Amino acid sequence: MEPITELSRPWAALSSDMVREISIRLRDAADFVRLHAVCIPWRESAPCPAAIRPTRFLPWPLALCEDLLVHVPLNFGRRLSSWPYHHGCGILLPRASSSSGDNNWVARADGTAAWFLTVHPEPTMTDLVTGAIRVLPRFRENDDGRINRRMEKCSGIVYSDGTIFVYSDSGDFRTANFTAAILRPGDAAWTIAEKSVYFGERCHHSSAAYHDGKILVCMNLQFWFVLMPDFEGNGAAGGGRLEMKSGTSTSARDAVKHEGSYIFESGNELIWATVISKRKPTFGYTGYDLASTPSVTLHALVEANISGRMRLVPRDGQSFRDRVLFLGSPASFTTKATTQFGGCAYFVFNSCVYKYNLINGVAQLMEHVPAGWGSDMSHVWIQPRPAIDPIDKIREKLKAPTKE
Fold first, then answer.
1. Residue from 154, 158, 147, 156 nearest 194 by CA
2. Nearest to residue 91, comparing CAs of 52, 54, 128?
3. Of 94, 204, 214, which is closest to residue 153 (Cα–Cα)?
4. Strands 114-118, 60-65: pairing kind
């Protein structure tokens, strides 16, 4: 074998400008870190963390796996290469010991941060990455303690203006009791909104979001309603029912199975994305065999010009050709698309990560998630922001005396 020389390693002579040009084209945070770890000159060419846009890198799916937070090292540029799941999971940090329930997530609407929400003894949010704790006002007390009990199992979203929106649902076989709490910047107390809805058929709460002073709540495949919280203390509610293009007959509803609903802001609209799977008739005990591949439908919440009432209207995949959807719970978001990734949605379905092409309607299995991942509807996508210390700072740390 010939010895390695400087002449056989032309990459060692790359200028800092060239390394930076390569660096800014990387969408995977792990590739970005590996590039700047090659050698000292390449490390010194790394941009400072403040110069890295929050949406520069492709998001990571995070979930609870037993008592640890893990992420699936998803490779966006390839097809599934093995089955079942054999790839390692990046363990981030232990779950906060004070968190209750694996669905007490609070996520920033743009995917740049996430927290665990604890209700007792007082509401607090614990940052998943830094561990910083933020104490929140107590929920409104009432005679029977109903609000606090419902919020013990809740989810939440933090919006760009700092508004915190948390919600919970409970109920029986046919009735859903929805409770939401909103804390805007400058508010000393939560604004509470509640609604009980009887559907007359089996239902469960799916997703909710706060937008333009309204709360949109979507349940199952067709049901939705809007809450109009009155921040002066006099709540009022409105609602409606989504009429699917295929109709609302029993046979049409039975032809598909609702797998998950996700509500998010995109292009100044509030979007409802629904993941469904088709049913195929069989001669088995249940009479149906669920297809292994899902599909995604999209609707936008708009206000009627004449009546002023809210309604949901279909959106086709072409209207999202310049965006990529990352569907998680409690928060989903979109990012600006590149030529390779435009017009698609990523989500977890049946313990797998899927990519769904919104243009041609094709679902692609990307990766199997590890055992113990948890519910498909209890995970978040987070946009990583890798911080690379300059070499001088690392040398200072190495010279610093260690504690015995």
1. 147
2. 128
3. 204
4. unpaired
Residues across the chain? 404
CB 139 within 8 A of CB 89: no
User: Alpha carbon of 356 to those of 158, 227, 361: distances in Å?
Assistant: 27, 31, 7
pTM over cut 0.85: no
| pLDDT for 402 | 62
- State the DSSP H helix or E strand holding residue 29, giving kind and residue range, or none if neither: helix 29-36
What pLDDT is stored for residue 210 in this prediction?
A: 92
> What end-to-end distance do the CA atoms of the chain give, in Å?
46
Amino acid (1-letter code) at residue 320: F
Residue 130's CB is within 10 A of a number of other CB atoms, namely 10
CA atoms within 13 A on the CB side of 365: 15
pLDDT at 157: 96
Give the residue ranges of the chain where pLDDT is below 50. Answer: 1, 81-88, 97-102, 234-252, 281-291
Q: What is the pLDDT of residue 236?
A: 44
* Alpha-carbon distance values, 264 to 127, 208, 216, 221, 379 (Å): 21, 9, 10, 17, 15
CB atoms within 10 A of CB 83: 10
Mark residue 253 as left, alpha or beta (left: phi above 0; alpha: psi -120 to 50; beta: remaining).
alpha
pLDDT score of 327: 94
Task: Give the SS3 label for residue 98.
Answer: coil
Q: Give SS3 for 214.
A: strand
Which residue pairs, CB below 8 angstroms and at least 24 apart, start in 169-175? 169/204, 169/205, 171/196, 171/205, 173/202, 174/198, 174/199, 174/200, 174/201, 174/202, 174/203, 175/199
Please report the pLDDT score of residue 46 as a whole number. 84
350, 371, 379, 352: which is closest to 102 by C-alpha? 379
Q: How crowded is the C-beta side of 71, counted as CA atoms within 13 Å? A: 20
